[in-house]
User: Which sequence fits this backbone?
């Protein structure tokens, strides 16, 4: 939304909460490609959400490589389920302490979580 775009431009805080806005914790959630973001936006609009915007951000390659990361796409289904049960709001919602988590979604591609600390490394 316009409010979210302004919040991101101002540093991100206050970060949204809840399963639909902060499944892996407070922070910045992104898609790797604009087409994925557009598909996700279209699905929200089909459910009646309006006034959405896509915001493009960039992070330097060296900074990206320096993040404490976990790519769940390389784990078994059982390992992903166990991790999500502990560290997502679908489960216990424990703090995972990571700067960056990649999670495959069923319909739109890979979703990228970035902690508030990692968000500061982005340019928009």
Assistant:
């Amino acid at each position: 939304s316009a409010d979210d775009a302004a919040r991101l431009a101002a540093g991100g805080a206050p970060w949204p909460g809840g399963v639909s806005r902060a499944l892996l914790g407070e922070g910045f959630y992104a898609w790797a490609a604009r087409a994925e973001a557009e598909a996700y936006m279209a699905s929200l609009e089909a459910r009646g959400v309006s006034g959405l915007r896509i915001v493009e951000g960039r992070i330097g390659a060296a900074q990206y490589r320096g993040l404490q990361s976990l790519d769940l796409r390389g784990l078994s289904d059982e390992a992903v389920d166990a991790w999500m049960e502990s560290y997502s709001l679908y489960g216990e919602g424990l703090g995972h302490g990571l700067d960056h988590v990649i999670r495959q979604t069923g319909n739109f591609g890979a979703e990228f979580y970035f902690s508030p600390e990692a968000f500061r490394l982005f340019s928009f």
Notes: The CA atoms of residues 2 and 53 lie 7 Å apart. The mean pLDDT is 95.
